[in-house]
């Protein structure tokens, strides 16, 4: 839902349109929006490559086909007619004069910066000097800062020329189907809403596992690591949606206010409750610095000190070169008292609620039942694709939200700074890096982190078994 008074973009300007993100995600998202008749403006691509608009169209068609998206020539022809191109140096003021000549200075524009974070502020400042920001919105990709200090510095530079409502901080996890719809799942279903607090929930586990390594991204990844790459942004944003109170209205700030309240209630992470790991062979990846101490795996324990969640431990883990590619949230209920009618006066195992984000989004309610005196799991499963139809792709959802001025799916300044505050002690006191074997679930120390609590569970995988 767009904020009242928000105007739909009359022009989309994509900086970095010849880069990897456009090739892997953006062109496909634009094509899908075109197919659904939700794209209604011209698109100007800006990059340093000296190519023609015909070359750009060819690249777009090739990129869309490579994603496996069903290809309709008529749909692509409509998209191609929207495309134009301008090449130049984003640090050169003359480029922005050319943009102004092409677009004018009084159009409702969305500037999407698919660029390195070091260029966010210079690009926005140049847009401001050229008078191109009066009616504009600017979308920037993560990472938004490298730590709390740099995030504040970047916010200050952007806010010097933009209002907060003009800034859209992109986190593609917020566009994933189950993440975007978690409000409805939690608050529209009494069955879930009545369970969703410390009276019923004993602990929360969030897992983001990738079954591949750093591959050819050694230089980038070595400067970031798992904590900065996915925990400070993706997983904490998911946690906020899982833990927040119901928003009081449909507006952009109504949702973001509740997410910010969760972060403000979270104490800084304790380095004593954090485990870092690196898969064997990482040091040999091209681009990784000699003696690097960057982690490819991290597991940590967090708390939310508010009335809903006080006393409920929250465990997060994320890593590369793990056995599966899967992202899930798992909530464990408290155990029921010992059952006097059982022969051995047994306590039944805990119930579980599992929200699978990737792949094949869905929800599982894991109950228990007796089978000839033995407790067995009973699974009530829903595949959202099967039950609700083909999901909207994350970048498709986010691009459309950005163009119509719906800020609910974008991170707000205060939340970004709070998440950096939460992980700051882990950046300041990183601790040792444990080696783990590729294809394992990380270092043994990650198991010790949950000692006395529920052990890490094998993720719930789609029908057909492990994903590649």
TrEMBL record:
Its EC number is 1.1.1.49. It is an enzyme of class 1 (oxidoreductase). InterPro entries: G6P_DH (IPR001282), G6P_DH_AS (IPR019796), G6P_DH_C (IPR022675), G6P_DH_NAD-bd (IPR022674), NAD(P)-bd_dom_sf (IPR036291). The keyword Metal-binding does not apply. Substrate binds at residues 172, 176, 210, 229, 320. Gene3D superfamilies: Dihydrodipicolinate Reductase, domain 2, NAD(P)-binding Rossmann-like Domain. This is Glucose-6-phosphate 1-dehydrogenase.
């Amino acid at each position: 839902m767009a904020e009242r008074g928000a105007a739909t973009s009359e022009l989309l300007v994509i900086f970095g349109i010849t880069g990897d993100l456009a090739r892997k995600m953006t062109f496909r998202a634009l094509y899908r929006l075109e197919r659904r008749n939700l794209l209604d403006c011209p698109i100007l691509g800006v990059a340093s490559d000296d190519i023609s608009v015909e070359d750009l169209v060819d690249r777009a068609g090739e990129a869309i086909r490579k994603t496996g998206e069903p290809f309709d020539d008529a749909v692509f022809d409509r998209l191609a007619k929207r495309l134009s191109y301008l090449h130049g140096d984003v640090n050169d003021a003359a480029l922005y004069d050319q943009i102004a000549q092409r677009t004018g200075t009084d159009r409702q524009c969305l500037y999407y910066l698919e660029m390195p974070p070091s260029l966010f502020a210079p690009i926005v400042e140049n847009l401001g000097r050229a008078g191109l920001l009066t009616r504009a919105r600017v979308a920037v990709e993560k990472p938004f800062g490298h730590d709390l200090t740099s995030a504040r510095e970047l916010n200050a530079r952007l806010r010097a020329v933009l209002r907060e409502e003009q800034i859209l901080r992109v986190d593609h996890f917020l566009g994933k189907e189950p993440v975007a719809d978690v409000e409805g799942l939690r608050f529209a279903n009494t069955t879930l809403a009545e369970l969703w607090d410390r009276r019923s929930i004993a602990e929360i586990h969030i897992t983001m596992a990738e079954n591949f390594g750093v591959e050819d991204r050694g230089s980038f990844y070595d400067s970031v690591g798992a904590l900065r790459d996915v925990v400070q942004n993706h997983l904490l944003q998911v946690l906020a949606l899982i833990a927040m109170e119901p928003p009081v209205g449909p507006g952009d700030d109504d949702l973001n206010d509740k997410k910010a309240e969760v972060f403000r209630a979270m104490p800084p992470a304790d380095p004593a409750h954090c485990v870092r790991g690196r898969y064997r062979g990482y040091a040999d990846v091209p681009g990784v610095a000699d003696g690097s101490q960057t982690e490819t795996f991290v597991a940590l324990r967090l708390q939310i000190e508010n009335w809903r969640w006080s006393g409920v431990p929250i465990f997060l883990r994320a890593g590369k070169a793990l056995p599966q590619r899967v992202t899930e949230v798992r909530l464990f209920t408290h155990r029921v008292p010992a059952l006097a009618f059982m022969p051995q006066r047994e306590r039944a195992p805990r119930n579980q609620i599992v929200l699978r984000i990737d792949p094949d989004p869905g929800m599982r309610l894991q109950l228990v039942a007796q089978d000839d005196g033995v407790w067995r799991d009973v699974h009530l499963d829903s595949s959202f694709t099967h039950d609700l139809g083909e999901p909207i792709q994350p970048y498709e959802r986010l691009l459309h939200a950005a163009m119509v001025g719906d800020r609910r799916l974008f991170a707000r300044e205060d939340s970004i700074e709070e998440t950096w505050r939460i992980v700051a002690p882990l950046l300041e006191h990183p601790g040792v890096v444990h080696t783990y074997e590729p294809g394992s679930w990380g270092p043994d120390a990650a198991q010790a982190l949950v000692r006395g609590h529920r052990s890490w569970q094998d993720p719930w995988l789609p029908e057909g078994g492990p994903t590649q």
